[in-house]
Amino acid sequence: xxxxxxxxxxxxxxxxxxxxxxxxxxxxxxxxxxxxxxxxxxxxxxxxxxxxxxxxxxxxxxxxxxxxxxxxxxxxxxxxxxxxxxxxxxxxxxxxxxxxxxxxxxxxxxxxxxxxxxxxxxxxxxxxxxxxxxxxxxxxxxxxxxxxxxxxxxxxxxxxxxxxxxxxxxxxxxxxxxxx
Length: 180
Ligand SMILES: CC(C)(COP(=O)(O)OP(=O)(O)OC[C@H]1O[C@@H](n2cnc3c(N)ncnc32)[C@H](O)[C@@H]1OP(=O)(O)O)[C@@H](O)C(=O)NCCC(=O)NCCS
What we know:
The chain is built from 7 helices and 6 strands. By secondary structure, it is of the alpha+beta class.
């Protein structure tokens, strides 16, 4: 997805495009099972940062797949996830032409702009309303350990609660130490 738009269309060097891939949440939008768009979210102590929004050209509004507003669907999903995880702030760097789009999703320009990776970026901050079901430190422990983003349905560990605590483990200590 990102190789098509950022490397293909925007001629980004690989090293500028692919970084931090294993320290973020990737969000993928599929249309009829086909990967159509994506973005990623990076997490910091008191803010989250939405990055790398890209929609395959055929799935863009007006594209031959007839899809509409996938970018809005991705951005909306990301902001909801950020709020559900209890964040009240998000940071963003928008390619200048797309600031109106990000403004519609709760971002405000800080007034600063920076140039890197061949683009002028508008620096943005979004102040978020608390999510009514935000997952906080006092959340149900079983909810906290459910698969990311699927906090409202039982996960594998919910089902495991039917098993008794038999405490299976491999004890490599010498026999005499175990008796201790
Ligand atoms: C930007 C992108 C995600 C939009 O995808 P999309 O699903 O087709 O989105 P839409 O057509 O519904 O556009 C969403 C908004 O962005 C605006 N937009 C889209 N392409 C634009 C462009 N090339 N220049 C300026 N604005 C643009 C649209 O006007 C629309 O705003 P509106 O709803 O207020 O009219 C897609 O064009 C893309 O992947 N581009 C390459 C990667 C990129 O530039 N990512 C953004 C980095 S900040």
